[in-house]
Amino acid sequence: MKFAVAGVLVAAGLAMAHHSFEAEYDGSRTTTLTGIVTQVAWQNPHAYIFVNAKDESGTLRDMRFELGPPYALVRGGWKKDTVKIGDKVTIEGAAVSKDPRLNWVGAMQTTMLVLASGEKLPTR
Length: 124
Hints:
This protein is an alpha+beta fold. The protein is 21% helix and 41% strand. Strands 1-2-3-5-4 form a 5-stranded mixed β-barrel.
């Protein structure tokens, strides 16, 4: 019985950790950012890239970019080390966070990551 309760609690925590895109991002408001990668988190259920870039107001911020899951990125041509700390990248057409206090952007089906070489990669 104790194991069943523990399993339910773990499952509930995982379910709460995965969220709805529409709950956090406004797909009708998109932005393009160019900056330097400060952190890469290749994890499930979503990968993240943190980029030191200017926001819409021109202020330099560490922006959190939420991508799709690693398996989808691999299908789109990514490798775990495609993006590294210190790389200059451009994020084209990312959805802006609904909460203006957060420096978050999220990948949509049309969002692309442009590497310094000019190569474009899908982000979902």
